[in-house]
Write a sequence for this structure.
């Protein structure tokens, strides 16, 4: 466990907060484990009716800690990243995201696996996978085109374009934009928690039953490709250029 993930009980609601402001809440392997464990525990804890996932006031998460990932690529069934992905995907309890500031990479793709999402006015969503010589992850290559359409998904996943809070709302990636985004998320969690719990779990299960196996398969395909891309020449050029604060040059690659 790591203290970079804060857990707090608010009655029958579990609040999980990503808290690594010095690194813009970038997620390490240890942090993924610290997110997965309470979600897994909440799944079988009858006293927890809903989960709220948030970051700090000015940042949701800058995505993966690239140094951590380059040292130990997230491959294999025992990857902390995959553990978190499956814990969130398979959680029978409602999960509500509350975000503001940057939401990069998995900070955006995890929204596709939450049941509700509320954004602050400064939210900025970006999936710069291709710019880094990588590929989409967390089932986003399958789900995002279904949610926003192929053209918008291409803008996000391939061009890596940033969308603001109002665009995220228009695209259907968040439910509402508000200065009081966290309070709104907690209020919604309370409303869900007051409903018949077995009925809520059944409704969520039925909504996910048709394409769940396909999503899990796509997640694993993407993760294998992602691990390979981390050691590619294109990714090395992208990361080197980032560290040297210059534009990458991909002209020599075929």
């Amino acid at each position: 466990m790591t203290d970079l993930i804060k857990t707090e009980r608010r009655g029958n609601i579990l609040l999980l907060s990503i808290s690594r402001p010095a690194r813009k809440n970038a997620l390490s392997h240890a942090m993924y484990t610290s997110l997965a464990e309470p979600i897994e525990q909440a799944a079988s804890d009858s006293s927890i009716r809903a989960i709220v996932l948030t970051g700090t006031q000015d940042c949701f998460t800058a995505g993966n800690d690239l140094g951590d990932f380059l040292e130990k690529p997230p491959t294999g069934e025992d990857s902390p990243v995959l553990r978190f992905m499956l814990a969130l995907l398979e959680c029978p309890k409602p999960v509500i995201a509350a975000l503001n500031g940057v939401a990069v990479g998995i900070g955006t793709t995890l929204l596709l696996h939450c049941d509700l999402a509320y954004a602050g006015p400064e939210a900025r969503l970006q999936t710069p996978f291709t710019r880094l010589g990588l590929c989409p992850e967390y089932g986003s290559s399958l789900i995002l085109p279904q949610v926003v359409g192929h053209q918008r998904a291409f803008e996000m996943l391939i061009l890596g374009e940033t969308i603001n809070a109002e665009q995220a709302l228009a695209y259907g990636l968040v439910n509402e934009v508000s200065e009081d985004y966290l309070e709104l998320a907690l209020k919604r969690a309370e409303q869900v928690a007051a409903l018949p719990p077995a009925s809520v779990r059944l409704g969520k299960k039925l909504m996910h039953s048709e394409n769940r196996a396909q999503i899990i398969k796509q997640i694993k395909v993407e993760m294998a490709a992602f691990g390979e891309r981390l050691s590619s020449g294109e990714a090395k050029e992208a990361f080197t250029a980032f560290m040297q604060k210059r534009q990458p040059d991909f002209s020599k690659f075929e």
